[in-house]
TrEMBL record:
The keyword Heme appears for this protein: no
Originating species: Paenibacillus mendelii
Gene3D superfamilies in the cross-refs: 3.40.50.2300
Positions of the Response regulatory domain: 149-264
Keywords (A to Z) from UniProt: DNA-binding, Phosphoprotein, Transcription, Transcription regulation, Two-component regulatory system
Protein known as: Response regulator transcription factor
The keyword Ligase appears for this protein: no
InterPro entries given in the database record: CheY-like_superfamily, Sig_transdc_resp-reg_receiver, WalR-like
Superkingdom as given in the UniProt entry: Bacteria
Amino acid sequence: MAVVLRNSIQEITLQLLQFIHSAIKKSASCGVIMAPCANMNQKTLDQAKMLMSQNDATQSVHLFYDVPNQVLCAVLDCGTLGSTHYASLVLKDFLQNQHLLQGQLIVSSFPENGNPTESAVAKFILQAIQSKGNEGDIHFYTEANAATSVLIADTDDVVREFIKIRLELKGYRVYEAKDGQEAYNIFVRVLPDLVITELNLPIMDGYQLIRQIQRNDSNEGKVIVLTDKQLTGDMSRAYESGASDYVTKPLSISELEWKIKRLTTNH
């Protein structure tokens, strides 16, 4: 079930990213509104688009509905945070009158509220999805209040899945990799707030992965080593490579969660 959810979020993330980047290329900015909704069809989409277009004839509005996550996405060319907020009021009234709204409307403007990376957009989408069941008010998304993202690099499927489930239950956005090269590729693409890595990784080992990550200033060195290697020399080498903390197996999940929280509290 968790794998299906993760894949469906990734699909809508990539779809929304295409709309955002296309809008920014045309007008340098765009507004985005996310709303959990049920039973949306083409007729209601067209009605919502017409109302939002009438609200501001200077803005092009793009709407699509993601069925797996039951969330409505609206992208407004040239949308500032202020104009997008005003458009969200129109959309909110329409959805409530049609008895379609199932949670909060989440509003943002890119790049005004942050860079439209895959990680940022995925957090934005998750904030809307996780609002299901709440009162249908309007909230603003910024990178500062987004969920913390964590990348886990380990060859052990059981270890990765155990950590992923525990962290997702705490509200973290989790990515997984089975080798160092895959981990680095994901890191460059999503820029997670924290990386947890084993040192014994194929293709690119943990030391190499840490050094590559340290070349990217945006991560600020937030790497936790989680490994079977318990010798002082291994620990010293990891810290010299740029690791922020070191945890040995067998895993204490409480210790790991505390270290994650300590490193990401002000991410």
